[in-house]
Structure formats: structure tokens, C-alpha cells
Write a structure and sequence with these properties.
Strand content: over 45%
Order of helices and strands: HEEEEEEEEEEE
Number of domains: 1
Helix content: 10-25%
Keywords: Signal
Shape: globular
Largest sheet: 11 strands, antiparallel
Protein name: Lipocalin-like domain-containing protein
Structural class: mainly beta
Organism: Mucilaginibacter ginsenosidivorans
Length: about 160
Amino acid sequence: MKKLKLFFLPLCLLLVFSACKKHSSDSVTATGTITATIDGTPQTFNFGATAHLDNTAGFNTLSIIGIKSASTSDSMIIEVTSQSPIAAGTYTGANSESDMSYTIMTGTLVYQFDGNNGASSSNVVINSISATNVQGTFNGTIELINGSGPASKTVTNGKFNLTIK
């Protein structure tokens, strides 16, 4: 179910952003930054970058999402889930606390941390979190779950500094 949610979220965001009329005075308010090196290539996901905290049925979730630009809908999604309130600390996929998804809209390639396979990993470190901001780092190995391409990608040097909405 989590894979489907992470697969369809970028598609929904694409529809939301593409459905908006563009006017010369319109702009997307920057709410922070997400950067990472994916297979050796530095990338940014600052378009519409935001974080959201949620507590549903006793589970606390921090969702982080960013899109490369208005002209490409490639996206990075990071989620941290805990039964305790989300706080500064390390969250790993090995403990089912973190998840990562990278979607390349050209050909609809989806790479995601898959906790069922020892070849992938997901690590998120929250350095600081308040009611309005979250900062931290992330890295891991994500596997191809949809499309045709390399079997995995390595994510290093991931950093985020985002407004919590």
C-alpha cells in the first residue's frame, strides 16, 4: 500500500501544478530546499518543496516532498514514521521508520526503498525540528519498482531544510 501511495503522490502533484493557470505575477513560494546526489549527479528538488506533520491512528508521520522544477515533475519523497512524536534523531528503513521514493517522470520510472530486500536502505537524520521548520540529512539505496532502467540508484549527501505546513 505504501508503494502505491508513494507512486501516485507525484502524479497527483503533477496534476495539481499543471492545472494551475500561469500568470506572469504568479510564483510558487519557496518553502525550503531538498538536495541530494543520485548516482553521482547532484540534484535539487526545491519546486514546491515542503514538509508536513501528521498524526493518524497513533502514528506520527513527517512527509517531505519536492519537485525538480516547473518544467519537470521528477520528485523526491521522504517519509519518517514513528509511534512517538517525530523528534531530532536517526530513523532507518531497517526499523520501518523511514522511506524514500525518487520518481523520474520521463518513462515514469519509480525508485523506492524496499524494506523487503536487503539490497536497499533508507536513512534519515533529523537534526532539528520545530512546529514550523525541519532540517536534516538522508541517504540510501533505492530500487526500481516501476519502469525499465537500472535496478537501483544510490542517494548520498541528501539534505533538507523545510517549512512545515
